Amino acid sequence: MSRIIALLTLFIPGIFAVIGIKLMRDALFNIVHPIFFHLFIQFFAGLIIFLLGLAFIGGFMVHRDRKRNKIQRKK
């Protein structure tokens, strides 16, 4: 059961990261979504969404590895 919860915990921020990549790609190809009124704002929003999703996934992995003592101590 805990593996399913961990998978869902990583899946949802992963979807946000994919949406951020799509927004940035659409901004590069001059496709404006109705929510955004300028390409720069769309690109910047996509970048923020992507970085937040990536940071959550990275933080989750570091937390899990520290809990299981798989990260080496700093010398």
UniProtKB/TrEMBL annotation:
Protein name: DUF2627 domain-containing protein
Transmembrane annotation, as ranges: 41-63
UniProt cross-references to Pfam families, sorted A to Z: DUF2627 (PF11118)
Keywords, comma-separated and alphabetical: Membrane, Transmembrane, Transmembrane helix
Annotated source species: Salinibacillus aidingensis
Entries under InterPro entries matching the protein: Uncharacterised_YqzF
